Design the sequence.
């Protein structure tokens, strides 16, 4: 009796049945024979196809049935035999994290920044490269690969935590911290979020974090870290399993996970306390869950899927739409390539549910989201891209920002090398994926397995990668290009993972004929090196050189991170002025003022107040129109030009946004100290808070003739 | 094996009840943190998995079971927290603990009965266990 893999009547995972020996059959080696299971379980029931995964990566046999990993005695032995290697990789990971910590501390203490960046990348390589080499090696069992991929995901999450160990530091983190605080304060949804009004209408992250805070008594920062850490675990594991189901190989799945870990957003952005970083793992979980439970008759399977879909819907718009597209494409592909059956209809139903739910939430509940997403992000980027393509506008110089210093050559070259490597590897990877997906592989490995729908979808996603790089040539489109990588690298990882699997698989006979040494370790080393280069390059693409490491306290110019004195001033404002007061403030300081101070910050519309040299009619009218009661003045604006994304002090619509070559003139801030209508109520170092309530309510009108040239009293 | 699974469900029931009680009784912070994390990230999903697959747990590997428990727990907690915050009762310490702890306890009881039914059915394929009837025999 031979065991032959046949395409399943119900899905991608092959079923196994008795079949006559094929013409090309050969005698199995002893190890292979010992690992073949009988087709019937001891209890007499047919084995479920879900328990059987073909492992092509083991050099002992091309195709074999493997018992459930947890119950395989052979697997356990291999695990024990290689445990010292895992311990060694763990040591390398710890060493890498230590290097990252040293690099961050060097940057915070105003040490040599260039040396710190080198140390940082050395730490990243120490974390990433050993795992990459090991999981792409041939003699590694699936569980070890999976465990190492999980270790890598958590270690890269730790890199972000090491960079900001005591508080949130990214702008999106402040947005969702404010959401969480609103829910904790009011116990209800949709509280005003001055940092990003749209975020208040996607309360999934804030609600779960508030629930965890209520249940445990932990701080919002620690609760947020735990929630995002759990999400990181979820997406790392789900992507491995999804890639394994798509490629039918744990080597390719490991390669896919490595590639996903190398995407530019994974290191920092996907580790931040942001709604997308919870929704995307949940979306990945939905895909895995539907694939894993297809054909299950359990009545609770569909309700569980619906609950997960609901969670994605109320957590993030783009993730919900992306899930709709994936499930819709899945249904469409099965509709086009397969006969209709109940399982296809189940995918279609779920695609319809998430499509309707996400659209209804987006257009009916989260109304500000439409203008935020299309008006402020997608349409401007598309317009700029159209202008660049049609020749009406010049493309942006890559690695250049308005105020940021130029990046070193090697930093830019790393980014170009990463993109070039991916683009060069993409055609052969797509060809290989195509061959497998449409059964054009010559060997018996993939014969008779039917169309691989998951791989076809992965190919379509991966093919979009070169197009996704075009928006980088515009000032508005860089963020969209980077953000899309979180989605595109799922498919890209699968097809490049298949290429890596092909590269490291033994072809000893062919190589012997060519009088070439086999050296399988060399191919593993090359594949691991390539993906490590991609990691370094994509990290350089994601962050500007000066913002890769945490900023020093009280930097010489205008800071791009919230400074401790701003936090102290914000807390003072909460205690002494009460919450939800209208503050005019700069974009960087608004993050602390809206969260630690719980104030209603006005940044985008308040730039005329600050960017005028005198308390003229424009300033007074703006104060009255947007009902500003307090001004939060940071004198560091006069020390340096802005280097935050967009390169502006207050708003992307201020006149010199993105074009600053000199710092803001001190006269623009000094005017507040000269007028009788404003009252200085707080001063500490470069931070001042002015009370302009009398101007706002019209009881005092400043003299427009008094210019700031005669002003006194600035710190 | 089946006895161990049933004991696990009883343990979950106890933990869920403890998590609800600790919201009204002063307990050490460490215990509160441990119970809270279990209640948000593990217990609801694990219990639902046990209820959904009462006798076919071998279909899911331990890794998959843990993954499913985490994903389902997160999804359930998000939905419950958002629902509570949208209702007049609001998202408070007591409401969230009662909602998640209570629903986990209820699902654990349901899973316990389903497990018992499945065990009896497999042991005696032709005999219905006492007190458990099929849908058709109810009328």
Sequence:
């Amino acid at each position: 009796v031979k065991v032959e893999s046949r395409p399943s009547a119900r899905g991608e995972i092959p079923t196994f049945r008795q079949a006559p020996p094929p013409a090309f059959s050969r005698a199995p080696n002893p190890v292979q024979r010992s690992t073949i299971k009988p087709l019937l379980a001891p209890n007499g029931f047919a084995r479920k196809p879900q328990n059987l995964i073909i492992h092509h990566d083991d050099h002992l046999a091309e195709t074999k049935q493997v018992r459930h990993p947890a119950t395989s005695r052979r697997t356990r032995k291999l695990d024990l035999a290689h445990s010292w290697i895992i311990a060694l990789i763990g040591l390398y990971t710890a060493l890498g994290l230590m290097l990252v910590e040293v690099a961050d501390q060097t940057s915070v203490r105003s040490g040599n920044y260039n040396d710190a960046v080198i140390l940082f990348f050395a730490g990243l390589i120490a974390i990433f490269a050993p795992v990459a080499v090991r999981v792409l090696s041939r003699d590694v069992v699936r569980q070890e690969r999976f465990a190492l991929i999980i270790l890598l995901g958590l270690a890269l999450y730790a890199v972000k935590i090491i960079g900001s160990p005591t508080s949130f530091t990214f702008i999106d983190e402040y947005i969702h911290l404010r959401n969480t605080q609103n829910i904790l304060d009011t116990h209800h949804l949709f509280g005003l979020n001055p940092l990003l009004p749209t975020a208040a209408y996607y309360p999934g992250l804030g609600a779960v974090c508030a629930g965890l805070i209520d249940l445990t008594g932990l701080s919002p920062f620690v609760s947020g870290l735990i929630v995002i850490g759990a999400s990181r675990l979820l997406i790392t594991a789900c992507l491995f399993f999804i890639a394994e189901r798509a490629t039918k190989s744990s080597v390719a799945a490991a390669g896919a996970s490595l590639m996903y870990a190398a995407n530019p957003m994974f290191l920092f952005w996907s580790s931040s306390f942001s709604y997308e970083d919870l929704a995307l793992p949940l979306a990945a979980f939905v895909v895995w869950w539907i694939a894993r439970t297809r054909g299950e008759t359990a009545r609770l399977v569909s309700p569980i899927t619906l609950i997960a879909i609901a969670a994605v819907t109320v957590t993030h718009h783009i993730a919900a739409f992306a899930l709709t597209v994936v499930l819709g494409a899945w249904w469409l592909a099965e509709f086009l390539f397969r006969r209709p059956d109940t399982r296809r209809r189940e995918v279609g139903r779920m695609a319809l549910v998430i499509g309707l739910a996400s659209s209804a939430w987006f257009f009916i509940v989260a109304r500000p989201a439409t203008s935020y997403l299309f008006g402020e992000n997608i349409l401007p980027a598309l317009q700029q891209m159209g202008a660049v393509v049609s020749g009406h506008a010049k493309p942006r110089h890559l690695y250049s920002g308005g105020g940021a210093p130029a990046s070193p050559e090697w930093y830019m070259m790393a980014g170009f090398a990463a993109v070039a490597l991916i683009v060069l590897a993409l055609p052969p990877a797509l060809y290989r994926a195509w061959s497998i997906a449409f059964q054009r592989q010559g060997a018996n490995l993939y014969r008779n397995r039917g169309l691989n729908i998951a791989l076809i979808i992965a190919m379509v996603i991966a093919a979009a990668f070169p197009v996704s790089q075009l928006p980088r040539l515009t000032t508005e489109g860089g963020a969209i290009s980077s953000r899309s990588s979180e989605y595109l690298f799922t498919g890209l990882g699968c097809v490049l993972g298949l290429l890596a699997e092909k590269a490291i698989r033994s072809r000893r006979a062919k190589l012997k004929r060519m009088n070439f040494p086999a050296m399988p370790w060399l191919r593993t080393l090359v594949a691991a090196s390539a993906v490590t280069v991609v990691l370094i390059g994509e990290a350089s693409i994601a962050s500007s050189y000066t913002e890769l490491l945490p900023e020093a306290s009280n930097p010489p110019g205008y800071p791009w991170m919230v400074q401790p004195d701003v936090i102290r001033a914000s807390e003072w404002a909460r205690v002494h002025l009460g919450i939800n007061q209208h503050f005019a403030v700069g974009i960087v300081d608004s993050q602390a003022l809206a969260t630690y101070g719980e104030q209603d910050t006005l940044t985008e519309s308040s730039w005329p107040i600050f960017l005028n040299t005198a308390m003229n009619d424009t300033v007074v009218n703006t104060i009255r129109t947007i009902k500003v009661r307090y001004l939060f003045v940071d004198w560091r604006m006069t020390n340096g030009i802005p280097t935050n994304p967009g390169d502006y002090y207050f708003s992307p619509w201020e006149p010199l946004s993105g074009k600053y070559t000199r710092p803001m003139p001190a006269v623009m801030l000094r005017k507040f100290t000269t007028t009788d209508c404003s009252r200085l109520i707080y001063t500490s170092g470069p931070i001042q808070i002015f009370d302009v309530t009398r101007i706002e309510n019209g009881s005092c009108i400043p003299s427009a003739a008094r210019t700031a040239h005669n002003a006194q009293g600035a710190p | 094996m089946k006895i161990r699974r049933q004991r696990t469900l009883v343990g979950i029931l106890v933990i869920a009840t403890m998590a609800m009680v600790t919201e009204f009784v002063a307990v050490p912070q460490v215990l509160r943190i441990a119970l809270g994390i279990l209640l948000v990230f593990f217990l609801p999903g694990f219990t639902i998995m046990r209820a959904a697959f009462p006798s076919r747990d071998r279909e899911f590997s331990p890794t998959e079971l843990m993954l499913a428990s985490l994903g389902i727990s997160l999804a359930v907690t998000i939905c419950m927290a958002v629902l509570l915050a949208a209702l007049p009762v609001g998202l408070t310490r007591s409401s969230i603990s009662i909602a998640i702890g209570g629903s986990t306890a209820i699902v654990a009881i349901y899973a316990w009965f389903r497990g018992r039914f499945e065990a009896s059915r497999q042991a005696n394929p032709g005999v219905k266990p006492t007190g458990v009837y099929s849908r058709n025999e109810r009328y």
